[in-house]
Amino acid sequence: MSLVYDVDAVVLDIEGTTSATGFVVDVLYPYSRSRFGALLSERSGDPDVQRAVAQVREELGDPDADAAAVEKALNAWLDEDRKATPLKTLQGIIWSEGFARGDLVSHFYDDVVPQLRAWHQAGLRLYVYSSGSVAAQRAWFTNSPEGDLTSLVSGLYDTENAGPKQEPESYRRIAAATGVAPSRLLFLSDRPGELDAARAAGWHAVGVRRPGEPYYEQGVGDHAQAGTFDEITVSTTTGTTGSTA
Ligand SMILES: CSCCC(=O)C(=O)COP(=O)(O)O
Ligand SMILES: [Mg+2]
């Protein structure tokens, strides 16, 4: 099936779409798991840590949960791969420091970076909307195997600044923030619930189905689908580029 879109911006999911879930789960998750304890005990005065800990306590329904209980909850959510905002905030702090230190280098599928460069060159704006925190996204694009890609990206959205990925309102919020009309936005994701929410907000949506990814067998419902970014032709009749990531 030929996938051709005239839009002004492409919004990218990361895990399962630009990048392998296996890499996130096998490399990034253990990296954060082994560092939650130190973060909670040594950086409890950091405002981002404080905010995330308050959110964990709220989710637990226990305002007095101590550091051990908070760490236990974070590890349980990691085991379930639950995309809880405070978990993602704390992971983002740990990962961005790991990327800056040179412990970590991100992963992109081979077809992704050439296509992002081509779309950017053609005048399309590129945005990211991921459950991973904005700090994690910035580190991810800064520390790619192909060097710093942040100049390709015009903005970063996560569940904290935009809201849950399966709710149409989050996509309306992103459209308003970018100033791009919903009908001029294309969302690429591996998860049908996210594609449904984007479409309900008036966006174009394409499901990316890569063999070996968790949602590959389930498919993307009645959404248009692509196996790689090469299969998606995107052009813009009105767009201009810019990078604010
Ligand atoms: C650089 S973000 C790391 C991946 C991650 O933690 C995550 O939750 C990604 O979820 P997505 O919404 O991109 O599928
Ligand atoms: Mg995903």
TrEMBL record:
Gene3D superfamilies: 1.10.720.60, HAD superfamily/HAD-like (3.40.50.1000). It catalyses: 5-methylsulfanyl-2,3-dioxopentyl phosphate + H2O = 1,2-dihydroxy-5-(methylsulfanyl)pent-1-en-3-one + phosphate. Transmembrane segments: none annotated. GO terms for molecular function: acireductone synthase activity. Binds 1 Mg(2+) ion per subunit. Its EC number is 3.1.3.77. Pfam families: Hydrolase. Its cofactor is Mg(2+). Keywords: Amino-acid biosynthesis, Hydrolase, Magnesium, Metal-binding, Methionine biosynthesis. InterPro entries: Enolase-ppase_E1, HAD-like_sf, HAD-SF_hydro_IA, HAD_sf. Pathway: Amino-acid biosynthesis; L-methionine biosynthesis via salvage pathway; L-methionine from S-methyl-5-thio-alpha-D-ribose 1-phosphate: step 3/6; Amino-acid biosynthesis; L-methionine biosynthesis via salvage pathway; L-methionine from S-methyl-5-thio-alpha-D-ribose 1-phosphate: step 4/6. It is an enzyme of class 3 (hydrolase). Monomer. PANTHER family: ENOLASE-PHOSPHATASE E1. NCBIfam families: enolase-ppase, HAD-SF-IA-v3. Belongs to the HAD-like hydrolase superfamily. MasA/MtnC family. Bifunctional enzyme that catalyzes the enolization of 2,3-diketo-5-methylthiopentyl-1-phosphate (DK-MTP-1-P) into the intermediate 2-hydroxy-3-keto-5-methylthiopentenyl-1-phosphate (HK-MTPenyl-1-P), which is then dephosphorylated to form the acireductone 1,2-dihydroxy-3-keto-5-methylthiopentene (DHK-MTPene). This is Enolase-phosphatase E1. It comes from Streptomyces justiciae.
